[in-house]
Amino acid sequence: MAQGSAKIRIVHAEPLGHGARLLRIERVDGAALGFAGGQYVIINTGVTLPGGKLAKRAYSLLSSDAEQRSVEIAIKRIGAGPGSNVLNDIAVGAELEWSGPWGKLRLPDGFSGRALVVATDTGITAALGVARGAAAAGAAQLDLVWLVESDDTFVSERFVRERLPERARLTVLGGFLPVGHPERPARACALVGDRVRELAAGPYDAALCAGDGAVIYPLRDRLAALGAPEGSVLLESFFNNPLKKSA
Ligand SMILES: Cc1cc2nc3c(=O)[nH]c(=O)nc-3n(C[C@H](O)[C@H](O)[C@H](O)COP(=O)(O)OP(=O)(O)OC[C@H]3O[C@@H](n4cnc5c(N)ncnc54)[C@H](O)[C@@H]3O)c2cc1C
Asked: Which CATH number characterizes residue 227's domain?
């Protein structure tokens, strides 16, 4: 289905950990979203920023793409950030503008090989979307590695395991360095490299990474050095995007 914009309604909300929220959203017109696992939507939070622009924020769909009319997103409250605070406080029944689905972090249609998915921090939402979409499509083997500081500020490990398809193997590398720590990229490359060597019986057919841009770009080079075919590592930077001046 083509991308578009429409109104969405918040149909359910529940708290997650300290300072995060799970929202179930539906299009007001009842239409399907037409997304593939790993994609995201952009929500116009309705907040006008100091420069006059509206705060439009991206959120990855963590629910399975087998269900297209009612979908879930999880939002971590980021300091005084306008978008994440509105969505953590908004009432059930409220309506907001939405556009999408967007994003190329997805397995090719009919993919049946072995895929590695690496998530840092909130990037676990996109990883869940990819894993659940792959399961719905009957994909073969999927290894998911999640680098996370602690599991009480966003979705928990239990939350992730309850939603992961049986054939996906999850490794949680908890106690990870905080966002912004200068050694984060190097530590991530070392940890993921070790885990890949333990898990894999040869290179993966595809690798997808989501989360901290400061980590996933160096990680792409590391995965290439470990044998990932050229062009096979896809990235979705949620924050610290090195390609943007202000991420
Ligand atoms: C493709 C994509 C998918 C995303 N999916 C999700 C999602 O599923 N769940 C979710 O909670 N957020 C997600 N985000 C981040 C989200 O779009 C917002 O950046 C976030 O909610 C903060 O917005 P804000 O307006 O509250 O704060 P802002 O004022 O916009 O942000 C404050 C600063 O915090 C940074 N930031 C954003 N997220 C984090 C984080 N986890 N840790 C540390 N710093 C961060 C921002 O880049 C910015 O520099 C995604 C971003 C992208 C690009």
From this structure: 3.40.50.80
What domain range includes position 193? Answer: 114-239
**What integer pLDDT is reported at residue 247 of this predicted model?**
41
Q: List, for the chain, all residue ranges whose pLDDT scores fall below the cut of 70.
A: 1-3, 139-140, 245-247
Ligand 1 center–CA 239 separation, angstroms: 6
User: What separation in Å is there between the alpha carbon of 53 and the centre of ligand 1?
Assistant: 17
What's the one-letter identity of residue 124?
I
* Pocket test residue of 22, 49, 59, 75 for ligand 1, highest count of atoms within 8 A of CB: 59
Q: Which of 51, 77, 102 is the last residue of a domain?
A: 102
Cis peptide before 101 (omega within 30 of 0): yes
| pLDDT for res 179 | 96
Question: Which two tokens mark 234?
Answer: 């896809």
| Cα of 29 from ligand 1 centre, angstroms | 27
